[in-house]
Amino acid sequence: MKVSGAILMVVLALPALVIAAGAQENARPAQAEDQTAPASEATDKNMQEYAELMRTNIRQRKAQIMAEVMQLSAADAAKFWPIYNEYDTALDRLSDSKVANIQEYARTYNQMTNDKADELVHNMIVYQRQRAELIAAYYEKFKGKLGAITAARFIQVEDQLLLIIDLQIDSSLPIVGQADMKVAHAQGVAQ
Q1: What is the pLDDT along the chain (191 residues), one digit of tens a residue?
Q2: What is the pTM of this model?
Q3: Where are the domains of the chain?
Q4: What is d(CA 127, CA 98) in angstroms, rounded to the nearest whole number?
């Protein structure tokens, strides 16, 4: 698991870096609008396509790690994987809202208002609640087909993988309001 964990960290870091690059790009001082608008649209499209590619690769690698750690018999695997694939598809659909929220954060980073910050945080809380409800629902499905121990193992491994993914993404995003603090500090130094 230690080798798998190291590989997972590298694989999972890539989409976080793509999202963070967009946030960092938006955190830079704006130049003339007419020069940056077409480039910005192209960058956004490229980031979306790259993020989707990375998401596909992450899902494949996550399933590989899950298979290694779960150590299921052939009979249990036949029950587990259809439920897991259903769960992973539902999680992927739900994760679209998180990706959209991060993209909105990156887009509005330099013009962050109290209302926008509040909206983004509420969106994040809704996503986290929905993800917890999804995991709880699938725990019951796994438990019904495979028993509580196997279901608990799934929850434990899934939770660890999701924590790693969340940490990689969250740690790569700039902290809200830091651009304002830097500007205020620079203005204070200049005076």
Answers
A1: 443 444 444 344 444 444 444 444 444 444 444 444 455 566 566 656 655 655 667 778 888 999 999 999 999 999 999 999 999 999 999 999 998 999 999 899 999 999 999 999 999 999 999 999 999 999 999 999 999 999 999 999 999 999 988 888 888 888 888 765 554 444 554 55
A2: 0.68
A3: 2-190
A4: 7
Task: Name the residue with tokens 């596909």.
Answer: 56
The per-residue DSSP string of the chain comes to -HHHHHHHHHHHHHHHHHHHHHHHHHHSPP--HHHHHHHHHHHHHHHHHHHHHHHHHHHHHHHHHHHHHH---HHHHHHHHHHHHHHHHHHHHHHHHHHHHHHHHHHHGGG--HHHHHHHHHHHHHHHHHHHHHHHHHHHHHHHHH-HHHHHHHHHHHHHHHHHHHHHHHHHSPPTTHHHHHHHHHHHHH-
Measured at the CA of 153, the angle between CA 2 and CA 13, to 5 degrees, comes to: 45
Angle made by CA atoms 45, 47, 53, in degrees to the nearest 5: 105
